[in-house]
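Quick one - first record:
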Amino acid sequence: MLSLAEKEFVNVSLEANRCLYCYDAPCIKGCPAGIDIPEFIKAVREKNNTRAARIIYRDNPLGAICGEICPAETLCMGKCVQSKIGKPVNIPMIQRYACAYAKDLAKLKSGNNTKKKVAVIGAGPAGLAAAEFLAQKGVKVKIFEKEKHIGGVLNSTLPLWRLSNEAKELDFSRILSHGITISYNSVFGKDLELKKLLREYYAVIIAGGLMSKQGGIEGSRHQNVFTADDFLKHTRKKAMKPLGNHVVIIGGGDVAMDCAVAALDVAKKVSIYYRRSIHEMPASPSEMDFAHKKGISFNYLSSPLKVNRNNDGELFIDFIENTVVPGKTGKLVAQPMSGTQFKVKCNAVVFAIGYEQNLAIFKKTNIAMDKNRSIVQIGDDYQTSLDNVFLAGDMVTGGGSVVECVKIAKEIAQIISEEF
């Protein structure tokens, strides 16, 4: 009788056999982490999962996690040569298999001990990746995390259906096997002062994540009007009471899709409203398709103007219809059309319109902001105005994918290690 691994290998091998092992492989260029994709696929094809996993983890410490949540269709798979004549190779499926069934996957060999220490603020994807890349180079790393657990968004707002506990446990345990220490319940800007950290550590990497943007319109503070983070945290914990007949999601990214699907647990009907057309919608095609199949309604070229609440607690959103026109940079932007206002009745509203830096944590640091004091200034090397203080992860990308956070973490680790 075939084992589960052997059964899965039947499908994985069929997919691996489709890889053309291209010279100067486009899929590698499509991967922000720079994983040698043809090489690990070849190892899987040869039934050497441990070697395949080592190749993956060499460039991406969150290999199993990214195998489940990476937007591969627009990254590595989007560059696959096979997509020109048919379907691209299902790279995530092969990556998931390699990481799940690798045996005796000891930690990657570390470099010589530098005797210098680096502090990492935040144990989310960027912080964990930076810690491992530094540990690989022999650097002693201590992570300071404000929560009682590691993982950041992976364990707080990412819906349970998006990522398995097995993938998290696999990556987290392997990363921590490098001797990385973690201080929990440590809040930067409150319990931790940057000046004190810099006295003890050679460098500090701030990878503290972002916070959801508020609605920014009149009525966005009404009861049952949520930010994406608050909504996802509560629905993830099953702590959200039923919200009634209709929940409206404002936004068009992957987070908006997560909110919409999560809302189905607390409402009969869920509608998404997005300011531009379907062609400009930033959500990945697979996430949109998943939401469509769940019966979620999509409405385009609509911007909210105001949220009203009556005495019965019902909400009414004033919308205006848009057209799209080229902006100053050439990017299509939404332009309201006069006389096209309309109302939508609902029981709750979720604003999933992006993220912003929590600037409050930088008040006592003397780190320079931009002229509008709306964002921390960094150089091309991700370094702030203070020497050896770096910004990483979503604080740089503005809320990108996990693999983009890994890319930045790798580059910062390389910059720091070159200075030793």
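second record:
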Amino acid sequence: MESQNGKDTRYVKVPDGGDVALIFGSRDVFIKMIEETFGVTGAVAPTEGGGDGALIAISGTEPGKVAAAAETVGILSGIVGKKGELTEQTVRYVADMVASGKGGELSGYDSDCICVSARGRPVHARSVGQKKYVEQIKKNTVVMGIGPAGTGKTFLAVAMAVKALRERQVSRIVLTRPAIEAGEKLGYLPGDLQSKIDPYLRPLHDALGELMGPENYLRATEKGTVEVAPLAYMRGRTLDDSFIILDEAQNATFEQMKMFLTRLGNNSKAVVTGDLTQTDLPRGQKSGLGSAVTILRGIDGIAVHEFTEADVVRHRLVQKIIVAYDKYEKEQAAEFQKHRSPSRYRKL
């Protein structure tokens, strides 16, 4: 580290000089994000002797923040070297993790390719939480992934299912969802029963189509290698040699959740995903997912993974929306408890 005129400077070596443009981003958008996060400035520095690679100089008045910004650039350089690209979400996530003192957890978080999509794009975990989720799916027979929207709960589970099918670890994939009427009545939708149910299953169709390709997905459904069906259709079945995913499980009742989990057959794996803050069950009815987490946590072979807003990989505003709603709900609950009138009657 150099100190001059009250400023400290750290240099980060980028092995491939061509990667500097990717780290800085279009119109320097990525380096500006790092500068704003840590209160530093970043610039390309000349290399001694004109050797291979390039240097990025990080300068600022606070040595700790300069070091953190340099650590961020170093991690991003490693990601670019492996993947050949950066996204705004990745840059923001890495910077936030380093700023909160969790940079050490980022080692290799996106290094393992789960599978390759139909378009040839590798599917990676995009946060530390996602990587831990994938590891738990590998190690356990039943995994419950709980957390807010946009954290990749369902897509990663589908990716792991496609990987297992391609590697012949299982002979079929079964994806299911509760067909809960989220404020709208099924009877008013046009078409037969299947047409009424299909909109509820569309996210699962989309994920499989993206990973397998539309034609391969269609052939797989025709052969029965892939099945997408409402949760009610699972009753009475034993699912052997299968990778089973229950999505939107917060909308499953206690009885439905018990029914689903007891469908598990030999050489099968189940992943249950849901967001306990977005249940569409009738008022007063408890979610089967919440009960299952309480009852089954700690059993060998069953893992519960909880995502946070830091794992959100959709538009950055989604993360802020989730935090804002969570804050509002906590304030409302506190206000309710504050003004809750005491009982007028005492037990005699």
